[in-house]
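Re: weekly structure request thread

Next one in the queue (497 aa):
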Amino acid sequence: MPFARSSGILLHPTSLPGQFGIGDLGQSAYQFIDFLVRSGQKLWQILPLGPTGYEHSPYIMNFSAFAGNPLLISLEMLAAEGLLETSMLEPLVDGDRPDQVDFDRVVPLKTGYLNQAFEQFQPSSDYEQFCQEQAYWLDDYVLFMALLESNGGKAWNQWESAIARRELAAVQAHTEALKPQIDYHKFTQFKFFEQWKALRAYANQKEIHIVGDISIYVCYNSADVWANPDCFKLEPETLASQYIAGVPPDYFSATGQLWGNPIYNWDYLQETGFEWWVKRFRATLEYADLVRVDHFRAFEAYWQVPGGEATAMNGEWVEAPGVEFFETLGQRLGELPVLAEDLGIITSEVEALRDRFQFPGMKILMFAFGDEPDNPYLPHQYVRNCAVYPGTHDNDTVVGWWERTSEPEKQFVARYLGYTSPEQIEAIHWVFLRLAFASVADLAVVQLQDVLGLDNSARMNDPSINAGNWRWRYPDSSVLSEELAQRLRDVTQLYSR
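Done, posted below.
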């Protein structure tokens, strides 16, 4: 569906400042919403909110497509409820990189406090209602997490066969034996969604809309795959992934990207009326107003690689039932507030699927200046029903890109913008922000790093490497100054956003 002309900022909650080494849903999140209001923005775009595992990618290593990340729970808000003693909360002392989340320190610190809060928690009617309403995913998730911990983090297909295959007697026995751990995970989910619901209500009251994110794939070692094995292409004997996801060689990598996620069994999903996917979209729309669908092209055709391959090169394209899926989704959920991430290898069939349902696609300014004037990412090529970004979480910052880009690209940028040479361009991040906001694209979204003019050290994710991503955060709310808000508001108003 087309959206009203507007603009916003891309910032994952982990990137907010705070006393405990990672952003959370407390005071700094409310202050960021206030900054969005002061700067005239209408959108806050986030990444997937689920609980993360190895390397903490919200896209690839996520223990559930339905659950929330307990690391985002505000400890101060728990203290305000009386579940923690404020005097006992010890802030995490900054290390060498205060602009980076040090997960090795953050995870044990926050987990310890969450356990203390759980010990003081008394179930309420709101808690009981939450557990009943969310039981369709919550019961599987909390048992999975308790089993994962009791099995030392081993992948679920390496657990005792009876529980790996979810035999009823084994499920009942482990549910009883692991009740304390199960109740703890129910508590953290209750508190996460309680805090997120309040934050979203505050944003909506201020006319800020949340742009959520659905990652196309889920992690193999997740409650999703363990509880719904028929939805995925798994080996019958070992229950390992028969095929794994990725993309062939592209802009980011000469050998492609091998993500390692299991491939969907679309035949089974069709037979069930796409029930698992319908539940997933419905759950996402409970905490977001719009939904960006990551790797949208996989709903038309996806790249599957045999399990065990070292790179993504030896894969094949397989058609997916995208039309039937989105028709079913619309029949079940109504008008779909979907934004399609249609970057990468895009065919006419993918474009037809996107346009059939009037989903806005994405335009990235950093991709615009390497070719000729017919490059589809140049603003004069845009249609109104799209979203433009100077760059996304998968790109460098604008300043970082400018410092590393080739001289021909810089010359192209200068010519396109009416400069005689690249040396005349000052504050390239504001130049790109203006270019995005001035375009005919209905939606324009900019990373906070680019509003702040930060260099490569503030990059959120580099898809060509696995380690060290997803860690950037801004130091404190003082950087969201009134001067910065005024400057952004002026540009926003000038271009009727």
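The radius of gyration is 23 Å. The first strand starts at residue 6 and ends at 10.
Next request, please.
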